[in-house]
Amino acid sequence: MTDSDTWTNPLRDTANDRRLPRIAGPSGLVIFGVTGDLSRKKLMPAVYDLANRGLLPPGFSLVGFARRDWEDEDFAQVVHDAVREHARTPFREEVWQQLAEGMRFIPGQFDDDEAFKRLGETIAELDTARGTGGNFAFYLSVPPKFFPQVVRQLKRHGLADAPAGSWRRAVIEKPFGRDLATAEELNAVVHEVFPPREVFRIDHYLGKETVQNILALRFANTLFEPIWNRGYVDHVQITMAEDIGIGGRAGYYDGIGSARDVIQNHLLQLLALTAMEEPADFDADALMAEKLKVLKAVKLPDDLERHTVRGQYTAGWQGGEKVGGYLEEEGIDPQSRTDTYAAVRLEVDNRRWAGVPFYLRTGKRLGRRVTEIAVVFQRAPHSPFDTTDTQELGHNALVIRVQPDEGVTVRFGSKVPGTQMEIRDVTMDFAYGESFTESSPEAYERLLLDVLLGDANLFPRHQEVEESWRILDPVEEFWDTHGRPAPYPAGTWGPDEADEMLARDGRTWRRP
Ligand code: BG6
Predict the structure, then answer these.
(1) Ligand 1 centroid to residue 342 C-alpha, Å
(2) What is the distance between the alpha carbons of residues 22 and 25, in angstroms, rounded to a whole number?
(3) Which residue in 208, 260, 310, 351 could disulfide with 339, CB within 3.0 to 4.6 Å?
């Protein structure tokens, strides 16, 4: 078959053509906790950006539910301001007008039956006026302690049950519990009301283009997979460093800490995508099966004292400004032992990875904002060159730069011109910004669209969430009973103990 046959073949399966835009069918989104930060900074702008890209149906409707004395117009104004401030794509009046016509607001508390009754009436009204077809996703952008109440109210008022031929979905945000036991409880409550297939758990890292690219890099190429194993890889470093502190999130963060906040979810998902086997296809079930299999193989070292480190930032300098320490942040208990930095060594106990450490680290108020996965290869088994000429040579490495400067770097040794045989590290770079003209959508655009399409590929299932707590719980228990986090000044790369942890293994952290 020639290329032109492909274009003219009337039997071509357009539904599966991945080059065509995926457009959501008739539907609406109800956001609980619509006055929160996430909603204003991420969800509302993402809805607008999707509409602006033509990926939402014309009658798409957005319903806000919160404890405010607002009319529909007040809500629309809040969305308008959020879109103006945070949307990725340019503001277009005609797109906005069409979207704004489908906005409704329900004032109420979560225990207010009247409010849920009004929500039901609003959904029915939208089905008639806007053709939403009974298809609604309920986004719980609220603290997890309210999940049980909200889902039960939805059930009680008949809103969780999809009318024939339509769907009802629940979207929930982390934290999915604070340990395995609470995660299981939470999952049980949500599944009492929504079948597991209709529950979409957001891990926004999976919505990032660079994270999806891990699978493309590994499984669409022949170059990397043959060396992606214990025969060639020395170790893997997964880093998520942030320069910001905890901002106004004391209430959420204190007592939770960095490991629960991001290692349990984002970093273990990155590990799973890096270490998993090739799925049978790119279907949600097949992907989940492989991620779950590899998470089950993850083992903590026996000696947690030597192979885990937690830290807490103290006052320091960041971007030329003096910043306070964690214990001085507003709303933080001055005795708090919450970690703002965490590093752990994990192993993946299977044939591909046995003996290869995976070092995961994250922290607030570190030197700069960067998330990357570095696959560090073993040194060449033998060098015919004089050792003095190669002393500056590091390990070969493949670095997936998740953010910023999205791309992939390969580091290898190269001869220095003009010298006899001096070899130094050089890098070969792929940068998204240079190779593609399209800019990357925000993670929430992709994920919201997937919810409306019912595409579950990029959403961790409850089994993955529980498996991740199984990995982290012993670390948290150990930390609870052993001392305090090690201090590190803001603007540095974490506590010295983290460097010592790697030095004991004869390795060093990358300084991205
Ligand atoms: C969230 C964490 O999941 O991810 C925050 O709760 C963190 O503490 C944030 O700041 C970082 O996200 P991103 O996309 O900016 O790397």
Answers:
(1) 15
(2) 10
(3) 310
246 CA: nearest ligand 1 atom: 8
pTM over 0.85: yes
Of 60, 272, 54, 256, residue with least CA distance to 174 = 256
User: CA torsion angle for 85, 172, 111, 43 (degrees, to 10)?
Assistant: 10
Decide if 265 contacts 203 (C-beta within 8 A): yes
Written as one string, the DSSP assignment of 424-454 is EEEEEEEEHHHH-SSPPPPHHHHHHHHHHHT
Instruction: Select from 354, 359, 392, 393 the least CA-distant residue to 508.
Output: 359
Which residues does residue 138 pair with via DSSP β-bridges, in sequence order? 30, 170
Q: Of the listed 235, 266, 307, 462, which one is catalytic? A: 266
The domain limits of the chain are: 27-173, 206-503
- Take atom 9 of ligand 1 and give the residue whose Cα is closest: 262
The ligand 1 atom nearest the CA atom of 174: 3
Provide the pLDDT for residue 383.
81
Q: Can you list the residues of the chain whose pLDDT is less than 50?
A: 1-14
Give the residue, by CA position, lying nearest to ligand 1 atom 10.
242
Q: Tell me, yes or no, if 266 is annotated catalytic.
A: yes
| Domain 27-173 class, CATH top level | alpha beta
Q: How far is CA 442 from CA 16, 58, 200, in A?
A: 23, 21, 18
Closest atom of ligand 1 to CA, residue 242: 10
Query: Rounded to a whole number, what is the largest CA-CA distance in the chain?
Result: 83
Residue nearest to atom 11 of ligand 1 (CA): 242
Å from CA of 258 to ligand 1 middle? 10
Confidence at residue 81, expressed as pLDDT on a 0 to 100 scale: 97
In the numeric block, the tokens 């507003």 are attached to: 330
CATH number assigned to the domain with residue range 206-503, chosen from the 4 options 3.30.200.20, 3.10.450.60, 3.30.360.10, 3.10.50.40: 3.30.360.10
